[in-house]
């Protein structure tokens, strides 16, 4: 009886190729949004047939990146929920937690509206939008954020500012690990600058302590 051919090495190789193509796409699309799939295959170190086997077209590749971004943002948003913390610290923790995701997938900003469509972009951002609005609403209720704008409107304004700052990272005009953006976000919400800096420092130290391995 003929033994079945072991396919696990092939599956592992396929997964490795797919991950390498996506990682290369994140990097190269940030440099050149109009890169062709053939050029992307060469940059990924795979033949054209391999890339098209995973992603039959540009739309399929961008959707895979969008789903990666959506999953990462959902995870970061869930991890950022701090219902027992004061609202200003919760907002700082939220921004610091999601900024690395935005930074990693910022190349999608140049492609989002045209290639993905506003509805798909909205789906990706919805969990973060909902959490930011909830934090802002709590902060307004507690008197730590200004009430000049409704929470959802203020959240939309802060989101637009964050996207604009990510675009500045794209152009090389800004480098940030999230702390400067978090301070700017708190200031936009109505927290005085000195207090905003102190809150962000505390939140950053807490996150660092949580992510540093013991031992």
UniProtKB/TrEMBL annotation:
<feature type="DNA-binding region" description="H-T-H motif">
    <location>
        <begin position="36"/>
        <end position="55"/>
    </location>
</feature>
<dbReference type="InterPro" id="IPR001647">
    <property type="entry name" value="HTH_TetR"/>
</dbReference>
<dbReference type="InterPro" id="IPR050109">
    <property type="entry name" value="HTH-type_TetR-like_transc_reg"/>
</dbReference>
<dbReference type="Pfam" id="PF00440">
    <property type="entry name" value="TetR_N"/>
</dbReference>
<dbReference type="GO" id="GO:0003700">
    <property type="term" value="F:DNA-binding transcription factor activity"/>
</dbReference>
<keyword id="KW-0238">DNA-binding</keyword>
<dbReference type="InterPro" id="IPR036271">
    <property type="entry name" value="Tet_transcr_reg_TetR-rel_C_sf"/>
</dbReference>
<feature type="domain" description="HTH tetR-type">
    <location>
        <begin position="15"/>
        <end position="73"/>
    </location>
</feature>
<protein>
    <submittedName>
        <fullName>Putative Regulator protein</fullName>
    </submittedName>
</protein>
<dbReference type="InterPro" id="IPR009057">
    <property type="entry name" value="Homeodomain-like_sf"/>
</dbReference>
<dbReference type="GO" id="GO:0000976">
    <property type="term" value="F:transcription cis-regulatory region binding"/>
</dbReference>
């Amino acid at each position: 009886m003929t033994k079945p051919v072991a396919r696990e090495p092939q599956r592992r190789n396929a997964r490795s190729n797919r991950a390498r193509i996506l990682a290369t796409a994140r990097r190269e699309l940030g440099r050149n949004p109009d890169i062709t799939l053939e050029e992307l295959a060469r940059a990924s170190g795979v033949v054209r047939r391999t890339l098209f086997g995973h992603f039959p077209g540009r739309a399929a590749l961008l959707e895979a990146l969008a789903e990666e971004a959506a999953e990462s943002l959902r995870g970061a948003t869930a991890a950022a929920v701090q219902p027992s913390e004061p609202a200003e610290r919760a907002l700082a923790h939220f921004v610091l937690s999601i900024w690395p995701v935005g930074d990693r997938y910022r190349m999608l900003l140049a492609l989002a509206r045209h290639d993905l469509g506003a509805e798909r972009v909205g789906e990706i951002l919805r969990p973060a939008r909902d959490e930011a609005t909830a934090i802002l609403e709590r902060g307004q209720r507690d008197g730590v954020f200004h009430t000049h704008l409704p929470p959802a409107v203020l959240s939309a304004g802060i989101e637009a500012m964050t996207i604009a700052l990510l675009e500045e990272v794209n152009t090389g005009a800004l480098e940030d690990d999230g702390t400067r953006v978090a301070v700017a976000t708190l200031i936009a919400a109505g927290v005085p600058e000195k207090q905003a800096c102190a809150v962000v420092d505390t939140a950053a130290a807490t996150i660092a302590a949580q992510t540093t391995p013991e031992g």
